[in-house]
Amino acid sequence: MSTTSRRPASVVPKPPSSLSPTCIIAETASLTGTNLITVSANAVLQARAKIIATYAPVVIGEGCVVCERASVGLLNAESDEEEESGIGVILEKNVTVEAGAVVEAKFVGEGTTIELGARIGKGAILGKHCKVTPLSIIAPGENLPDFTVAYGLSERRMEKPGLELLREEVHEKHIEVLRRLVPTNLAKWKS
Q1: pLDDT tens track for 155-165
Q2: N or C: which terminal CB in the chain sees fewer CB atoms within 10 Å?
Q3: Distance between CA atoms of residues 66 and 50, nearest Å
Q4: How distant, in Å, are the alpha carbons of 34, 53, 81, 102, 176 from that of 71?
């Protein structure tokens, strides 16, 4: 009979967080860092979604959806100038970050959709109701005005306003479905 010594499981400290009681955080979602993570009402963090607050705070707005393997937060250290400002990543109301997308933007406006595998560079600012198509790249520090559709490496076009209310209704129904499908365990993240 072999005697193997088992390593004790390392306990990773919980990040400081402010979680709404109505948010949904999947058991296998990952919240890491030493800065504050704020998750607002009805926000959904699906399985293996990563919220990284190691270098700056992260705010997930009301009704946001962060899908599987998506990452929100700064991946590496900021410059001294940014570090002093204390500004991290802010997702406004009803933002959707789809599977595999990486968001390091300073600000993402209400109703914006960041699709499959898109990368949003550090310090970028996206306006309201923007759409970043699959595998598109937004350069660090870039500023997209409201209703911009970004596709390809650097192609941009403006979308006509008028469908925001319909999209908001569909988004709310999406959250209702996720509420039934995604098991949540907020106690895991409470200090």
Answers
A1: 888 888 888 88
A2: N
A3: 8
A4: 16, 11, 24, 5, 22
pLDDT tens sequence across 68-96: 999 999 988 765 454 445 679 999 999 99
- Report pTM: 0.87
| SS3 assignment, position 52 | strand
The conformational region for residue 85 under phi > 0 = left, psi -120 to 50 = alpha, else beta, is: alpha
17 pLDDT more than 70: yes
The residue with greater pLDDT, 42 or 6, is 42
What is 84-145 written as a DSSP string? HHT--EEE-TT-EE-TT-EE--SEE-TT-EE-TT-EE-TT-EE-TT-EE-TT-EE-TT-EEP
Dist. CA 96–CA 112, nearest whole Å? 6
DSSP tally for the chain: helices H, then strands E? 2, 21
* C-alpha distance across the termini of the chain, in Å: 41
